[in-house]
Design brief:
5 strands; single chain; HU Protein, Chain A; three-stranded antiparallel sheet; two-stranded antiparallel sheet
Length: 100
């Protein structure tokens, strides 16, 4: 599923136009990004939490060439799903019996 698919589903479910729905989806994504840039975390109860995690510099190896590479420290966005989110996804996949 991509952004256009999400917009289509929300528009169908809410009765909003696709243009209005796209504005809402873009606004949500911009708000989450700005909050993370500002050092805040975004908690959506029953869904999950977006936050930024610091990863220290490290030494890695290129598996193709065996060359040692220095990876600088970096800040990466992280999403941690809520317990309800995990349970619903697990139940749906268990019900399906799919091993994808």
């Amino acid at each position: 599923m991509n952004k256009a698919d999400i917009i289509d589903r929300i528009a169908t479910g809410t009765g909003l136009t696709k243009i209005e729905t796209e504005a809402v989806v873009n606004g949500f994504m911009t708000t989450v990004l700005q909050a993370l840039e500002a050092g805040d975390h975004v908690e959506l109860r029953g869904f999950g939490t977006f936050r930024v995690q610091h990863r220290a510099a490290r030494t890695a190896r290129n598996p193709r060439t065996n060359e040692v590479v220095q990876v600088p420290d970096q800040y990466v966005p992280q999403f941690k799903p809520s317990r309800e989110f995990r349970e619903r996804v697990d139940a749906a996949w268990q019900e399906r019996g799919d091993d994808r």
